[in-house]
Design brief:
heterotrimer; A mainly alpha (303); B mainly alpha (297); C alpha/beta (251); A: 303 residues; mainly alpha; MetI-like fold; 2 domains; two-stranded antiparallel sheet; 12 helices; 2 strands; globular; C: 251 residues; alpha/beta; Rossmann fold; 6-stranded mixed β-sheet; 4-stranded antiparallel β-sheet; 10 helices; 36% helix
């Protein structure tokens, strides 16, 4: 029996070792992807600065790479476009999102809560082109009509649409943050005669504040990174807006619009990678901060 | 305390009022949002349903897109999503197995996990840029289903890893211990005592990833999707048409925008239908397996 | 001497589970009444019915009455918020809020609008003195409550409970998470407090029940087996089941 057992056992051991190696290689590959993306973006991005002075890139106020004679590669109008539209989005989505999360987590029960959360999650899955399309055919005429402006494709439209798109993120991350608060805190408050409202706002919400802040940051990240919807409703003029009804361009839509137009290997082409770097850094930064905030909230309950 | 009573009584009643009506006031914006979602869905349905027909779904566009159907778009979307899964599902599930079963709890592992989570938050256009630089140019794959599929695969890799890892970690340790105590190798224990039970959760994650991938435009914009091809893609190196891009093009770039508007609505509905189909199937699947799992208290 | 609380024919179900079966007894004022019995017999559930904390659990059904000062606690018309101000609770595991010691105690009075400013500070000091905690924390009132030891946290929870001026105090196995020394200090505190409050304590520790209480209710599988003065129950139990429990034949 020993004779027949050993070769089979060896092949089992070999399979086991091979399997382990395959799994380890896969996860290393996955981890390397992040580094790879950053590297590529940097490599291509810095080639911009062979022709464009870096300060002019970072602080220039005109973005017009195709201009005759004097192409301009100033980030500012694009950054402003991204930040302003995101700011409007957050003004809408943060109060709404946190309020909804409080209602969902502290008051709704049973099938009502499940149905609400499902509907919100389903909406989160709507493709951004569909939302952009809706903004184009419904929101734009509405804005043009209500505010008596010639076109509804502007900063306001983009901001409102982004607000709706980041709502599900803010709601679900805030809801997670609120549910992680130990139930014993609520029990103690109820036993003292506190109402659910008082308990929610004076005990639960403050205890969950790091997680809620993380939700806002992730909502910010979602809005800043959105491309297609913004492309369809923002008007796409790379200017510094002076009113809510001016068209704008964001960093994301600039990359999407101009990548197809720029000549391969030109300064214009590489500048889009530089824009990609900026986007990558913003996205990575917000995500890392949000993660550490969530960890901080969880740690605060195990003192 | 008797002297305080009237004032205390009045203020207490105000607090009770706040609690009962305050919450319902919070509910107004939430209800408005939910109503908006339903309204959007109904609006699209109302305007697009009239265009949908069997011919619409199975015919190519004709007459400069003003007539005909969206069949090549459906094919293209399905194909490119499939290619992305061929890449991301094996690598993703294997990575998840490594992270939950093999990885030691050290700095390197935390770094790997952190990178993967960060990848999930990168904007899709950045993946598109990377795809252009790596697959289209550097690896000389050109504008093709392969380039787009790989780009999409990179994008949904972190989603697959996250859901698969969650599903695998949810299996109680006692399952593994029982197998190992009987003398199985580590891989055998995983293969027979963990993966079969984690499979529903992994599948749910894949279904959700499919739904999200089908709706993505930015990663495929410059890696292979095209406005019009005469024939269906017949190899991995063909260009292809896709539903989300078709919607985008019809809505913003067609020279007869208003004439093709109904077709745009139809495309939006079909795309939404595909996405919601996978989402709902994943959701129902998750519900049914959750109740069937007796080891999940 | 009229009773502070009278439980009449109390039945409670968690969904289909009949947890409390026709419980009836009376709780005298300014005394300590212990509810004891083997685990799972429904002691905590009975206690939590008195301040209607069971309302928080879905699927709970109750019949019967609990009279306090002439009003039925279980009636729909009863103001639960007011009830919980008059009937305070200290839990098994200390659960201070993640705030400072001062803020933990100030929370209750603030939400019930029991004074402002310096009155709150006075109240904090008064209740901490009553809970035998003042000397240990008076110089660090603004430290986080989690910096206190388990026994101190539990006394903090007691002070917090006292801060809203309850008439009745419910203690749900308050010493089970504490070491013997802290436990003894808590029992000493209970002895002091009973002069001014009606105290009901749930405990699975028979010796503690014998030390601390004046009256004792023995609960088994949801039924009230016996209710009598503590010294009588422990020396001459009326029911055989009580006797078996007390002599350790089951636990």
């Amino acid at each position: 029996m020993a004779g027949t057992g050993r070769p089979r056992f060896r092949s089992r051991k070999l399979t086991d070792k091979a399997a382990g190696a395959v799994f380890r290689a896969s996860s290393l590959l996955s981890a390397v992807v992040l580094l790879g993306i950053l590297l590529f973006l940097l490599l291509y991005g810095v080639r911009t600065f062979r022709e464009v002075p870096i300060l002019r890139f970072l602080f220039g106020t005109v973005w017009n790479p195709d201009a005759y004679g004097e192409p301009a590669y100033g980030l500012i109008p694009l950054v402003l476009g991204s930040l302003l539209s995101t700011a409007i989005a957050l003004i809408i989505a943060v109060p709404l999102g946190i309020a909804s999360a409080i209602l969902i987590s502290e008051r709704l029960k049973g099938w009502v809560r499940v149905a609400t959360k499902t509907l919100v999650e389903l909406f989160a899955g709507f493709p951004s082109v569909v939302l952009g399309f809706f903004g184009l055919v419904v929101l734009a005429p509405f804005i043009a009509h209500t505010f008596h402006v010639p076109s509804g494709l502007n900063l306001l439209n983009a901001g409102v649409l982004l607000g709706f798109m980041s709502l599900p993120t803010i709601i679900s991350v805030s809801d997670d943050a609120l549910r992680v608060v130990p139930h014993s805190y609520r029990e103690a408050a109820y036993a003292l005669g506190a109402t659910p409202w008082t308990t929610a706002f004076r005990i639960v919400l403050p205890a969950a504040r790091s997680g809620i802040l993380a939700a806002v940051m992730l909502g910010f990240g979602r809005a800043v990174g959105e491309t297609m919807a913004v492309m369809m409703v923002a008007g796409n003029a790379a200017i510094i807006p002076h009113s809510l009804f001016d068209p704008i361009r964001t960093i994301t839509s600039t990359i999407a619009i101009e990548l197809g137009e720029s000549a391969f290997g030109s300064a214009h082409y590489y500048s889009l990678f530089a824009l990609g770097c900026v986007l990558f850094i913003i996205a990575l930064g917000t995500n890392l901060v949000a993660e550490s905030l969530i960890k901080r909230e969880k740690r605060s309950f195990t003192l | 305390m008797t002297g305080h009573e009237p004032a205390q009584g009045r203020r207490l009643r105000r607090t009770r009022f706040a609690s009962n009506y305050g919450f319902w006031a919070l509910g107004i914006p939430l209800a408005a949002f939910l109503v908006f979602i339903v309204y959007m869905f109904a609006y699209l349905l109302r305007n697009g349903l009239g265009v949908i027909s069997w011919r619409f779904l199975t015919q190519p566009p004709l007459n400069g897109m003003t007539e005909g159907g969206i069949w090549p778009c459906i094919v293209g979307t399905v194909l490119v999503t499939f290619v992305s899964l061929v890449f991301s599902v094996p690598i993703g599930v294997f990575s998840a197995i490594y992270l939950s079963e093999y990885a030691p709890a050290n700095f390197a592992t935390r770094g790997i996990r952190s990178s993967i989570r960060s990848l999930a938050g990168i904007p899709s256009i950045v993946y598109g840029l990377f795809g252009v630089a790596l697959f289209v140019s550097a690896m000389k794959l050109g504008l093709s289903i392969l380039s787009s599929g790989l780009t999409l695969g990179l994008m949904n890799l972190p989603w697959i890893i996250a859901t698969a890892e969650e599903a695998i970690s949810a299996i109680p340790g006692s399952f593994r211990e029982g197998a190992l105590a009987l003398g199985t190798t580590k891989w055998e224990a995983i293969r027979h005592n963990v993966l079969p039970y984690a499979f529903p959760g992994i599948l749910t994650g894949i279904l959700l990833a499919v739904a999200r991938t089908m709706g993505e435009t930015a990663p495929i914009l410059f890696t292979g999707v095209t406005y019009y091809t005469r024939q269906l893609p017949n190899s991995l190196s063909s260009k292809f048409m896709a539903l989300p891009y078709h919607l985008f093009a019809l809505a913003t770039q067609h020279d007869q925008m208003m004439k093709v508007r109904p077709i745009a609505f139809g495309t939006a509905i079909v795309l939404l239908a595909f996405v919601l189909l996978f989402d709902v199937v994943a959701f129902v699947f998750r519900l049914r397996t959750a109740s069937a799992n007796k080891w999940q208290v | 001497m009229t009773n502070k609380i009278t439980v009449e024919g109390l039945n409670l179900w968690f969904s289909d589970n009949h947890v409390l079966k026709d419980v009836s007894f009376a709780i005298p004022p300014n005394a300590v009444t212990a509810i004891m019995g083997p685990s799972g017999c429904g002691k905590s559930t009975l206690l939590r019915t008195i301040n209607r904390m069971n309302d928080l659990i879905l699927g709970t059904r109750v019949t019967g009455r609990i009279m306090m000062d002439g009003q039925d606690i279980l009636a729909d018309s009863t103001d639960v918020i007011e009830l919980r101000k008059r009937v305070g609770m200290v839990f098994q595991k200390p659960n201070p809020f993640p705030k400072s010691i001062f803020e933990n105690i100030a929370f209750g009075p603030r939400i019930h609008h029991l004074g402002a400013g310096s009155e709150i500070a006075e109240r904090v000091e008064r209740t901490l003195v009553a809970a035998n905690l003042w000397d240990e924390v008076k110089h660090r009132l603004h430290d986080n409550a989690f910096c206190l030891s388990g026994g101190q946290q539990q006394r903090l929870c007691m002070a917090r409970c006292l801060s809203v001026e309850p008439e009745v105090i419910l203690l749900d196995e308050p010493a089970s998470a504490l070491d013997p020394l802290s436990s003894a200090r808590l029992e000493e505190l209970i002895g002091q407090l009973k002069k001014n409050y009606t105290i009901i304590i749930v405990t699975h520790n028979m010796q503690q029940a014998a030390r601390v209480s004046d009256w004792c209710a023995f609960l088994m599988l949801g039924e009230l087996v016996e209710f009598d003065r503590t010294d009588r129950i422990f020396t001459k139990p009326g029911d055989k089941r009580t006797e078996d429990f007390l002599s350790g034949r089951f636990g």
